[in-house]
From TrEMBL:
<comment type="function">
    <text>Oxidizes L-gulono-1,4-lactone to hydrogen peroxide and L-xylo-hexulonolactone which spontaneously isomerizes to L-ascorbate.</text>
</comment>
<dbReference type="InterPro" id="IPR036318">
    <property type="entry name" value="FAD-bd_PCMH-like_sf"/>
</dbReference>
<keyword id="KW-0560">Oxidoreductase</keyword>
<dbReference type="InterPro" id="IPR007173">
    <property type="entry name" value="ALO_C"/>
</dbReference>
<dbReference type="InterPro" id="IPR016169">
    <property type="entry name" value="FAD-bd_PCMH_sub2"/>
</dbReference>
<dbReference type="InterPro" id="IPR010031">
    <property type="entry name" value="FAD_lactone_oxidase-like"/>
</dbReference>
<keyword id="KW-0060">Ascorbate biosynthesis</keyword>
<dbReference type="GO" id="GO:0019853">
    <property type="term" value="P:L-ascorbic acid biosynthetic process"/>
</dbReference>
<dbReference type="InterPro" id="IPR030654">
    <property type="entry name" value="Sugar_lactone_oxidase"/>
</dbReference>
<keyword id="KW-0285">Flavoprotein</keyword>
<protein>
    <recommendedName>
        <fullName>L-gulonolactone oxidase</fullName>
        <ecNumber>1.1.3.8</ecNumber>
    </recommendedName>
</protein>
<keyword id="KW-0256">Endoplasmic reticulum</keyword>
<comment type="similarity">
    <text>Belongs to the oxygen-dependent FAD-linked oxidoreductase family.</text>
</comment>
<keyword id="KW-0492">Microsome</keyword>
<keyword id="KW-0274">FAD</keyword>
<dbReference type="InterPro" id="IPR016171">
    <property type="entry name" value="Vanillyl_alc_oxidase_C-sub2"/>
</dbReference>
<keyword id="KW-0472">Membrane</keyword>
Length: 375
């Protein structure tokens, strides 16, 4: 077959063994399965991998672990195609100012042609998940951060229930206790039906949160697998999401304030979970973790069967608390920030704007969202 051609790689369900099966679309050839080696892992990976490399760094994708930064911190070099048609190689040594901006680029500096990540030898992770309570986990937060390399927890609003999750490198053989009945029949199909019912009877939401904690999250569970299989998880529901990063020292105060707000406002309902993850401070200009260790507090509202759900009151309550505690929004999630607010939140925002205006003076790479961010 003669080129040129493009190849989009998408994971194929059911791949196993020493090779990962991917599906590629080639012009006039249809879709064909192509075996490729499993990539050498990077130290920390986001929860969703069906995203391009340029996309995950461009929006500041993160995982958890106070010893690890967001994914852009793992970039050591990249290549940009600029609006002028020039191809620019960027790294700490070559075009360092552009490199600092392009590690989290928002898609507005140029087309990312290649990205080089800092990788590590393949490793397995052991995931241990167990129940706790919100007061306990907040009281022992420092201990949890020291005890596990990749620590996060899930809080179930309208209760004090918490699911603590440790993920750490291991030499143990792969194992799993997953069950289709619990994971899908109950954890997906039944849950989505009940969430749909709750759109007509909102008072059911607190009961759903407490009930499903007891059904699915109240026991200790262990799993061992390759790192990417532990880092990734399946997002089964259509959903609205916000995810802001606050200084790690304000985690307790912010979560308790969010709990109080949910208890104080009649009719304000929050789906489970509120996911709390942690990231190391960095020097990436538009990083929510710029020069501070941070806690990401992720809130969610599901859209069962695609049905619209009211979000304004919950979103405004959450954003008010995040702003109060010096929060910065995740660029890939919903937020209502204006340029004036972003300039205050991100100290290096003016530097980024200067580089953007130099590389794309006519705004070829801007869209309606980015125009709101920069103007």
């Amino acid at each position: 077959m003669e080129g040129p051609f493009s190849l989009d790689l998408i994971p194929v369900d059911g791949a196993s063994g020493d090779e990962s099966m991917w599906e590629g679309s080639l012009p006039e050839e249809g879709s064909i399965p192509i075996p490729v080696p499993i990539p050498i892992p990077i130290p920390s990976l986001g929860a969703v991998s069906e995203v391009s490399a340029a996309g995950v760094i461009g929006t500041g994708t993160h995982n958890t672990g106070i010893g690890h930064g967001i994914l852009p911190t793992q970039v050591v070099a990249l290549t940009l195609l600029l609006a002028s048609g020039e191809i620019l190689e960027c790294s700490e040594a070559a075009n360092p100012e552009v490199f600092q901006a392009a590690r989290l680029h928002l898609g507005c500096l140029g087309i990312v042609l290649s990205v080089t990540f800092q990788c590590v030898p393949e490793f397995r992770l052991r995931e241990v998940a167990f129940p706790s309570t919100l007061p306990q986990v907040l009281e022992q937060l420092e201990e949890h951060l020291e005890r596990s390399q990749y620590f996060r927890f899930l809080w179930f609003p309208h209760s004090d229930h918490v699911r603590i999750i440790y993920q750490d490198p291991t030499d143990r053989p792969p194992c799993s206790s997953s069950s289709w009945i619990w994971d899908y029949a109950v954890g997906y199909y039944l849950l989505e039906f009940l969430l749909w019912i709750s759109t007509f009877i909102p008072a059911l939401v607190p009961w759903i949160n407490r009930c499903f904690f007891r059904l699915l999250f109240s026991s200790r569970v262990e799993k061992v697998a390759r790192s990417h299989r532990i880092f990734n998880y399946e997002c089964r529901f259509r959903q609205h999401v916000q995810d802001w990063a606050i200084p790690i020292g304000k985690t307790r105060e912010a979560l308790l304030e969010l709990r109080e707000a949910l208890d104080a406002v009649p009719g304000l309902r929050a789906h489970f979970p509120v996911e709390v993850r942690f990231s190391k401070g960095d020097e990436v200009w538009l990083s929510p973790c710029f020069r501070r260790d941070s806690a990401f507090i992720n809130v969610i509202l599901y859209r069962p069967y695609g049905k619209a759900v009211p979000i304004r009151e919950y979103w405004s309550t959450y954003e008010r608390i995040m702003r109060k505690h010096d929060g910065r929004p995740h660029w890939a999630k919903a937020h209502s920030c204006t340029r004036k607010e972003l300039e205050k939140m991100f100290p290096a925002f003016p530097k980024f704007c200067s580089v953007r205006e130099k590389l794309d003076p006519t705004g070829i790479f801007l869209n309606s969202y980015l125009e709101k961010v920069f103007y």
